[in-house]
């Protein structure tokens, strides 16, 4: 005897009723959600239209009517933050700083990581500080980076001060040589590096030499550019100083049996360097400012650090502080060279 095949029982009336109720509830819930989203979108549109027409109070009222998350659905989260930030901007425009801060805090109450609201509150608090307190905070924020750049500036200055007098002396002596094979190359170096801008020379050394297979680091390129350029300028200063010594000095030295090199080393140059201090001091003071040009070849020195701070914060205090540091450096160098001039007695007291 075979067992009868069981067939699935048709849905009962209760199951059908439950399915219908679920569908009805879903429809009833979905309709208000759509209506709510439409209301939020309509409020945002009203606010934008009112702002375009210059009705700022109506725009603020429309944006304030946008409900916060939790009062409706999760769909209004972005719209709520956008609406409240628009309210904050409108209040800020009419200098209602407390109201603007409150609107931004409303956003942070629901979205604690909202960057725009945090930045707005920080900006308002900064603007409401006394001028001296704001300046001190700016100094605290900018000085570490500026001082780091100033250290690189001093490194460039000191290295150039060491390199350029030696190079200038060699070029000057070659320029004064009676041998054409030495005189003409030295003349060419002076003509080339004094006749072209330092910025162009830095560009060629850093950006142009790689096309010839020579790639240099920014610091190396900066030292070569500054060293050769100032060597050319100092060569002319040294040459003029040597030629200012009466010719009788050389003749007297030769009469004593000295060679040309001995006469230059023992008689001429010791008298020359005293006369060179004022123009050389002027060149080295200009060098402090010319180091700002190396910022164009990716060197992070004082000027580039100030430029980066300004482009980041759009705060002119960074530029002012950089100017103060440059003034401090030039003042110190000027004072040092004035003391040297007094010690060597360049000028006769009348």
Tag the structure with descriptive keywords:
about 350 residues, elongated
What does this structure look like?
The protein has 350 residues and is an all-alpha fold. The protein is 78% helix and 0% strand. The chain is built from 13 helices and no strands. Helix 6 runs antiparallel to helix 7, helix 7 packs across helix 9 and helix 10 runs antiparallel to helix 11. The N terminus is likely disordered.
Question: In terms of per-residue confidence, which ranges show pLDDT below 50 for 5 or more consecutive residues?
Answer: 1-9, 26-37, 72-76
Count of individual beta strands: 0
Rg estimate, integer Å = 39 Å
Work out the helix count. 13
Topology:
Elements: H1 13-52, H2 56-64, H3 77-93, H4 97-110, H5 115-127, H6 131-176, H7 180-195, H8 198-208, H9 218-243, H10 247-255, H11 260-290, H12 302-313, H13 317-344
Describe the structure concisely.
The protein has 350 residues and is mainly α. The chain contains 13 helices and no strands. Helix 1 (13-52) runs antiparallel to helix 2 (56-64) and helix 2 (56-64) runs antiparallel to helix 3.
